[in-house]
Design a protein that fits this description.
homodimer; alpha+beta; Glutathione S-transferase Yfyf (Class Pi), Chain A, domain 2; 4-stranded mixed β-sheet; 52% helix; 7% strand; globular
Chain lengths: 223, 223
């Protein structure tokens, strides 16, 4: 089976899957693309017009990222990223959805999308009130992440799961624009430091988008 | 295993699960609740503060609805609501996410939440511009639903799946406030008519919330 992932480098959802492919050691062609520069071509493959999408054998297209994650698990190859126990699996799914839905709406859209995506898409200037709201909200989320990281080895329990990959996908994108106050949240910082040191993370730290440099500490393992 | 579903009757996500429990013939206590009237009690069980949630043996709590749906499938009881084939399963997940994410953002939030939820929560008056946008957007979605219903027996393929339950959850809620122009979309109407006639749908058609009567044709099988 020939797999090809099309992703936008500063997308948390694409990053979750790039991490997953690497952690599971699944062989796939991974290609960066810019969704708003490939409109008709993209909507023919995904009517929702979004990336990431996964092509299977050059024909079938899987999207959005939640369905791709489940599909990669269904392959039964490499490390499992959902726990075996149904209740623990449900907990990992809860935290994955927490980041992909709640954190996305309350932080990612108000920081990264305001600062970076709007500029790349040329859809207007960043909205200062929205950015302030995002910077306020991220502290609530870092509190919760610290609470989890204090009590568990990984965010959903003993083993690395999609919960960690989803959280790291969002936080690494927001960190690209320097909006994560790591020093006030040592437990969250320790968890992120462990994520950042994994070989799967390397390609994320090398991402550069639209001539915008990342925050100084972005790729620094000792941040 | 003792299951108890807490749901808000005019929630598309709660409705998807009520339909699923019935279609799968899984025995569960199903209790209606109002999330904004149970704040501290609710956030102790679900930090996100949302319904639906599923209690397992009076202890474990599963949320949000996407994790509950997967958990119900994991029980391996009753009719499967994800197709067996991994690519078909991915397609069913794509359409489920289409309704639970895209339709929710582009239609449900702009119609049902403006008209009904705001009034029940006493959080202000409906915003006319948002409602107009929702009524515009629903036509695009009904076009897409008709396209799918014209080509397939059920929305994701040959068999009923979570894709149908998610779509019916949203559309039945929006239909409660009379905002679905069924007559302009015969293929979508035919699909909804088949959904509406299923025994699993009966309790949804009997819902009455906060003294607000549903649209006239809401519970009518011949609408």
């Amino acid at each position: 089976m020939k797999l090809r992932l099309l992703h936008f480098p500063l997308s948390p959802f694409g990053r979750k899957l790039r991490l997953a492919l690497f952690e599971k050691e699944i062989l796939a062609e991974i290609e960066a693309a810019t969704p708003w520069e490939m409109d008709a071509d993209l909507t023919a493959r995904n009517p929702a017009g979004t990336l990431p999408l996964l092509e299977v054998d050059g024909e079938a297209v899987i999207c959005p990222s939640s369905a791709i994650a489940e599909f990669l698990e269904d392959l039964g190859q490499g490390a499992a990223l959902w726990p075996e126990d149904p209740l623990e699996r449900a907990e990992a799914r809860r935290i994955t959805a927490w980041f992909d839905e709640k954190f996305h709406r309350e932080v990612t859209e108000l920081t990264l999308y305001e600062k970076v995506h709007k500029r790349l898409k040329r859809t207007g200037n960043p909205d200062a009130a929205r950015m302030r709201a995002g910077q306020h909200n991220i502290r609530i989320h870092l509190d919760y992440l610290s609470y989890l990281a204090d009590r568990r080895n990984w965010l959903a329990g003993d083993a690395l799961s999609y919960a960690d990959l989803a959280a790291a996908g969002h936080l690494s994108c927001v960190d690209y624009c320097g909006d994560v106050p790591w020093d006030d949240y040592p437990a969250a910082k320790d968890w992120y430091s462990r994520m950042k040191s994994r070989p799967s993370f390397r390609s994320l730290l090398a991402d550069r988008v639209g001539g915008m440099a990342p925050a100084k500490h972005y790729a620094d393992l000792d941040f």
